[in-house]
Amino acid sequence: MPHIVGDHLASEVPPENVASLKPALASIKASCDYMGGVSRAKFYADILPLLETVKLGSRHFVVVASMDRLIEASRSKAA
Asked: Exposed, middle or buried: residue 60 (CB in 10 Å: 0-12, 13-18, 19+)?
């Protein structure tokens, strides 16, 4: 049975659009890697308080767009 995405069936989404989708959420481990391979301790202490998070069940995820915004804001300050 196909998955429903919004009000469309996933099988109705053109393959080229699926390949270009960027995940909206990242695990803590993936977020550490995304932010340059920082340690979990550094991530929890200094970076995570600046990011948007989502809790699904017992797991915490970081909103990827919030990491992108933090990176862009840091780049702007450095320039």
From this structure: middle
Q: How many domains does the chain have?
A: 1
Residues 31-71: tens digit of each pLDDT: 999 999 999 999 999 999 999 999 999 999 999 999 999 99
Contact 10, 4 (CB under 8 A): yes
Burial 6-45 (b: 16+ CB within 10 A, else e): eeeeeeeeeeeeeeeeeeebbebeebbebbeebeeeebee
The answer to whether position 53 is within a domain reads yes
**37: domain range?**
23-78
